[in-house]
Amino acid sequence: MPNNDYILRSDATTLVSQLPAYHGSEGAWVDQKDALDTLNAIPAADVEPKRKTGRWVYKHRTQVHYHKETGEDVMTGEKRTVMVYDDLSGKYPHCPYCDALAADSFMDYCPHCGAKMDAEPPKGENDEQGA
Q1: 86 forms bridges with which residues in the sheet?
Q2: Contact residues for 9 (Cβ-Cβ < 8 A; gap 6+)
Q3: For the chain, which residues make up each domain, given as ranges?
Q4: Using CB atoms within 10 A as the burial measure, which of 61, 79, 94, 127 is most buried?
């Protein structure tokens, strides 16, 4: 019975290419090119990666933003530039798998790891919103 540990061919190729020439089982020396050719000749398994599904996790995040605003002083008519402080603190959506900050929670997938965000929230979590 075969051992079905699926590996990435690119990872195996990288490891083989880092090995020095080695002594094969029949007493002959095998070089990297022969080993890589043999590895690439193995047919790929017909497997599909498990699809990650979940829902956004909201974490508190403090964002402070400074920017310059230029405008006309209504009293004197002079042009002035001031620094404006924006405090954008709040809860922002994060991916439960890669913990990346999402642009917005309306997205149905994580733009960083591709996890699909379509799972139903646990019962009772949205009860207070409907009331």
Answers
A1: 65
A2: 39, 40, 42, 44
A3: 9-41, 57-122
A4: 94
Distances (CA, A) of 94 to 65, 112, 113, 122, 124: 20, 11, 12, 17, 21
Residue 35 tokens, joined: 């080993």
The span from the CA of 25 to the CA of 3, in Å, is 21
User: Among 53, 123, 62, 64, which residue's Cα sits nearest to residue 95?
Assistant: 53
The predicted pLDDT at position 123 comes to 57
Hey, is 122 helix, strand or coil? coil
Residue 23: C-alpha distances to residues 17, 26, 32, 61, 78 (Å) = 15, 8, 12, 57, 84
- Condensed to tens digits (0 to 9), the pLDDT of residues 43-94 reads 777 776 677 888 888 888 887 778 898 999 888 889 999 888 887 788 888 8
Res. 34: pLDDT tops 80: no
- Is the pLDDT at 110 greater than 80? The verdict is yes
